[in-house]
Known about the structure:
14 strands; TIM Barrel; alpha/beta; 14 helices; three-stranded antiparallel sheet
Amino acid sequence: MRFSTITAAGLLASGVSANLHELAVAAGKKYFGTATDNSELTDTAYVEILKDAKMFGQITPGNGQKWQFTEKSQGVFSYTSGDEIADFAKTNSKLLRCHTLVWHSQLPTWVSSGTWTKEQLTSIIDTHISNVAGHYKGQCYAWDVVNEALNEDGTYRDSVFYKVLGTDFIPIAFKAAAAADADAKLYYNDYNIELAGNKQKEVLNIIKNIKDSGARIDGLGLQAHLIVGSAGSRSALSAVLQSYVDAGVTEVAYTELDIRHKAIPADTAAQEQQATDYVSVVGACLDIAECVGVTIWDYTDKYSWIPSVFPGTGEALPWDKDLKPKPAYTSISSLLAAAGKGGAAPATSAPAVATSAAAAVTTSAAAAAPTSESAAAEPSVPAAEPSVPESSAPAAPVTTPKASIPAATPAPATTLSTVVKSKCGGGATAEAASSAPAAAATGGAARWAQCGGNGFTGSTTCQSGLTCQKQNDYYSQCV
């Protein structure tokens, strides 16, 4: 089915809701959601859209549940930031995707710089997960148990966890999470695993190894930090989702979706391509019954991590910096409405949607050249993946038959307090982390924003009351 401006306008004019979560549920998905962060909850206009349970049925905390903030000193736990987001989710009738328990970045130095035996580090992981996941027991629909364990070539990151425990740290974490919260869905989460490649293949091995160890893994999270024109075709994306299901997880999800422009401001043609790419990704989720939902990595360009990490790029989200919906939003809502055979309720509270040609989604049969750009942030945000999406979207969800996965050249990517992968001199890959929002217009970077690291060119000072704290050689953050 070809989506055009007329299609979008017709669906909305006919009384179809433009509320994304409502439409996603009508199309058979569990949720459509967004990430958020504590500092953003002071923005009244932003919160008005965020709290609408018909628009977003799920939220993910960008930073507040990470190790650096929950156990800054060994054995001393704090849940203030995480609780604020959890309480917001409960008050506004949203599922909470909890994020994250074990990750190589945003670790307190007592963990990352410690000299541990296997027994000691195993106990540290067990204690951390028992306390944090135990604290949020009953509140989390899902946990990202382990985040970004792999390098771009499918080898393992040289983290403190891998150095001491090898690959065993992953099943250790999953066993601890299952013991702490038996009802939460347990996910492995990573970027640049949306298309076939070495990294995607190693994720299949991770799933197998967890299951072989006797631990439980329920889901696979694909961050999907992509680049306009290189997101991958709907069929290629669907095939990779299916590969994870075939490996033994019961659900998959796009967990940190954004699709950035290489140059901004984006012109009409670029906005149309971005809309096409969003249709490919959301459409792939519609095609696979086990894909439970899509989470965008914040919903507005106002709070995107990308500009601070990749200067000159961005405008990656369905709402612009003024909280107005863009062509990508129109195309997503049109796709979901068609898949749900009319959607749910009248569009009485839906945001106004521009009717310019930029709102159209055009079918593209051309293949895009693979990109090697990388994005990162944990926020961790992955970069683009090759091949131009196909957007011949079916009118209703269709389960894609098991098929061979098209070959694709993987590109690096990222997460919300985001750790970004960027290519440095000599082809070496370095990590830089950024968190949205970035530097404020007045007097330094805001809370969670990047303020230093190898290759970082942004503001190295923080707003009053915050300090620039080094996480690793490539990333310092205002806290």
